[in-house]
Amino acid sequence: MRARFNRSTVIFLLGCLVVFAVFQYLFSAGVLNAFWYTLIRIGAVMAIVSIGLNLIYGFNGQFSLGQWGFYAIGAYAAADITYRWTQLHDTSGLMVLLLGVAFSGAAILLLGKYLNRVRGLDAMSAFAIYLLFVVLAVLVGVWIARPLIAPTTAALTALPEAVSSQIVFFLAVILGGLVAAEVSFLFGLPILTLGSDYFGIATLGFTIIIKVLLDNTDTMFGLTEMKGARGMVGIPKDTTWFWVFFFLFVVVVVTRNILQSSTGRAIVSVREDETAAKAMGIDVGGMKTLTFVLGSLFAGLAGGLYAHINGFLHPSNFNFIRSFDPMIIIVLGGLGSITGTVIASFAWALVLEGFLRIVLPEGFETWRFVVYPLLLLVMMLLRPKGLLGTYEIPFLRSVMPPRRKRERQVDAQGLQGPTSERQSEGG
Question: How far is CA 225 from CA 81, 85, 216, 310, in A?
Answer without folding.
Answer: 11, 12, 12, 17
